[in-house]
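Submission sheet (multi-component)
Chains listed below:
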Amino acid sequence: MLLARVTGTLVATQKNSKLEGAKLLLVQPLTLEDTPRGPELLAVDGVGAGVHEKVLIVLEGRAASDAIGQKGAPVDAAIVGIVDEVDLP
Amino acid sequence: MQLGRVIGNVVLTLKNDTLQGVPLLLVQPLSSSREPIGRVIVAADSVGAGVGEEVFFVRGKEASFPFHPTEVPADAGIVGIVDHWHIG
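Outcome: structure written.
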């Protein structure tokens, strides 16, 4: 899993039927210092995250489809949590 | 998933049987500011995308899921056509 920031929202009318009703959010993976790391990704939202929030994402198909409760959905990234804080002792 | 733009298509006469009838499109991955990022890829299309359209695609095994129960040997697949996106 990775830490990421929600940067935007996306609308797509024509999409795979297993994605009907799924919320699609653009996310920017982050380093521990909160700087961007790698390209932005599009993730399905399993928790009701909003723009600017720091989130936890999974980058794996099985986990991502589980996150939206749609077995066999063709997704490879999903938001599975909203981060309150990261403790780095 | 990643954003991309369809820039062409690939025609194959001789191909894996399970790829019969599966459109294979050339996709340029895009950033959210519409700049090309990385290499152009070939993706299996299950949503009827066309050249010039902005789409999103999955990578990996999940690319074959839209063709279930046929096990299509694809590692990238277009799963949606973008209407618009908005950066907060």
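Remark: Chain B touches chain A at residues 1-3, 29, 31-32, 37-38, 46-48, 56, 58-63, 65-66, 68, 77, 79-88 (CB under 8 Å).
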